[in-house]
Amino acid sequence: MRIAIFTLFPDMFAGPFGASIVGRAVAREQVAISLHNFRDMATDRHHTVDDYPYGGGAGMVLRPEPLFASVEAAALPPEAPIILLTPQGRPFDQRAAARLAALPVMALICGHYEGVDERVREHLATEEISLGDFVLSGGEIAAMAVVDAVVRLLPGVIDPLSLEEESHHAALLEYPHYTRPAEFRGWAVPDVLISGNHALIARWRREQALRRTWERRPDILAAELARDALDRKERRLIAEWEEARRGDAESVATEVIHFPVDK
pLDDT tens, 88-125? Predict the structure, then answer.
């Protein structure tokens, strides 16, 4: 896969892309990552890439000319997605990572300052991606996250069996993991995991993944229920958890607290 990144700070990528899974994938030539400093395409003597916004307002806006020139000079194929990393984009998730990992090439534009000239959004970027509902100082960290999520899905980068059991691969969050020692500071590994019964272990892991998703990401669970992806037993488990939660809430609401009264 070929990934082109357009940034004002290419030095930021040296560490993350030179180590761990992405670093190994680069060394094995499973992915080629090119960094393009679009400041190099500024034509004035100060290499200016930003300017004040028309109509007034705080902050500076990235000019369109250096970005267009930099992307065009990279000679990307016409079908390559050109992704603008911005808080206004669609939320990035595992499905998006899998979609991008199936492509031979993609480009990422790292925004900065108050944002980019709207003509970049309208006539250069083909889509916009956001890591979430928060604002970063620039798109570089977002680009690193997207690249890491995509590269690890490329064929041969990671054992496929490891990918199948990760959070979000099968929609649900991942089940809890334990390793040696079997007991640490009085906290023991669940008996089922050392039972040797693989069917029971698989069932326990599925139920734990289901409960963790129910507790932490009800939005994901609601989507799974809506598409009828859970069996009858799993739906019954969820109903039991919901009933227990309601019971706990009612117990707290009706509890009488007696305070001492001064005479």
Answer: 999 999 999 999 999 999 999 999 888 899 999 999 99
Would you tell me which CATH number, out of the four given (3.40.50.10140, 3.40.1280.10, 3.40.1190.20, 3.40.190.10), belongs to the domain 2-160? 3.40.1280.10
Domain boundaries, the chain: 2-160, 183-254
3-state secondary structure 50-118: EECCCCCCCCCEECHHHHHHHHHHCCCCCCCCEEEEEEEEEECCHHHHHHHHCCCEEEEEECECCCECH
Neighbours of 82 (CB within 10 A): 19
Q: What is the H or E stretch that residue 183 is in? A: strand 183-184
pTM of the shown model: 0.83
